[in-house]
User: Fold these one by one.
Assistant:
Number 1:
Amino acid sequence: MASPGFEIGRPSEFGVELTRLLERCLKESRCVDTESLCIVAGEKVWAIRVDIHALNYEGNLLDAASVAAIAAITHFRRPDVTVSGEEVTVHSPEERDPVPLSVHHMPICCTFAFFTQGKHLLVDPSLVEEKVMDGKMVIGMNKHREICMLQITGEMLLLKEQVLRCSNIAVVKVTEISELILKALENDRVARTSGEKCGFAESVEPKKITSTKTDHQDVEMEEHDSDKMADTSHSSDDDIQIVRPEDSVEVKILDKGLAAIGEGGQNTWEIDEDVATEAMADAAAAATSSSCLQGKGDNQHEVIDLDSGSEEETTMTLSHDDLQTHRPTTTPAQAASQKSADRKGKKKKKK
């Protein structure tokens, strides 16, 4: 329901991580007095469970879930209980007013997203920002500056100063959110006392469609060296001479299947002129050697330089006439068969 990326059934890795972080933030921090949940020592206790239903996932679900969980725990009321000997009586809300839970403090999660190896910091990332971030740090803290949970994930390294800076930002955010929760709980209590509409279901107007909308904010970005290099590359591209088809250009035939059009423009590939000259000389030498190998006649196929000190292997190309002159008249097998035939002929003559 919250997002098409979530499947029904077995929880995903993200769901398991979210559940464990909430347990560390709420359960292991002992924000609720568990002794007050005891009814009969060693026999009966109250079991508290928090179910979170996400309506729309647009990023940073952990912070929203922690705020909703601690607000639900603080707002929850359990039935009053009377213990008489071994008899336990649970009173209905009509008989006795429900009893609130004993909450020591309100831990709230605050998520920080990091970009470019921790150089840029972002608080409360959205879904798009979570997909491109290098890593994140989650701090669970209450308004008393007590850290209840801390987790760092991602491929990045943070300095001590960065962690302290994030903790100082988290204190401000947690204090503001705690005051909003307490204010909302007080308004709900006043509404229930005066008999006005209260609760989420009663406060929603059925004939209206609510939507979230945020105004676009301009972000000032500093110009980096990479942007300057990109501008320089664009300026160098403007210097390239563009040859149009209608211009009269001379075509030079360099070799078979090789031609050159025009004289070219300014060198923009940052290649040393000496290297380019040597490459052109090597190409011309290769073209000359190939023309020498072809020769003028049919029997001239190779030119061998005996003065060169090269140790590479040479390949000789033989013509059809050379193969006929060097080919033996008879093979060893044919000579043996001829000898055996001559012997048989001599034996017949003797007989």
Number 2:
Amino acid sequence: MEDENTADTMDFGLFSIGSFTDVYGPDLDEFGDDEFDSILANVTSSEITESALAEQITCAPTMPKEKEIIGVGNLNTDTRDAKEKTSGKSQGRFAAIDEADLDSIFLDGRPKSTLRTTHWGVKIFQQWLTHHEISSNFEALPKEQLASHLRHFYAELRTTEGKYYSKSSFVGIRSAIHRHLRSPPFERNINILQDIAFHSANNVFLGMLRKIKTLGLDNAQHHEPISQADLAKIRNSLSVDTPLQLQRKVWFDLTLGFGRRGNENQRDLTIHSFAVESDDVGMEF
């Protein structure tokens, strides 16, 4: 991983019926595997629509509520109380959150692709420090010393083949180091992008960007588009005869038409993420 940001991909063989509930909403979560299978069995290929599936759900046997299960009580409440007692967290309206929880909330909110890019950029800087027999633990260095290291690092930065990075990768490495320093557990109150202490280092950085532009490496390198022949083969292989085939077709249409970047956030989509509208001539879209 050096030069390009490769879009995430999803092989059709990785799909499972389990992710079907992600598309049709949380209502299906109330049923077990047997009930869910019976719902799908009663919906034919021509009836796989939102209304048909909703009708099958309505006709499905009602599962007992948690409080109606004899001898168990409220499962969610009991489980939560047990966890709170064992962890020492307070009960009631406000939860007791420690520093580790706060750090986890912050990090979990970042896309996995950003975390990977951050790790990649920081690792390159650490390799440069080790190459110069400097401790790779740079997070606690004073501003001036860190700025001096970055000044030389920007000028000497090359790929493993000894070539210059593209503009996007070069910028991404500096941004990765910046995010790393500002994130838990370090949370340094410094800004390597703008602080005056890093002015000289950033001048070198800008000079390297001009050099990269001169070499013609400032243009993004995109993947080749799908040929019309291959696109026709893909479309001819898709159908809506089964729920799994329908899911594959929906996934492909979303990825191709809306640029959802593979499987990065598709599991968060629900039926409420989309709306059907009509244009001026009554055509639905």
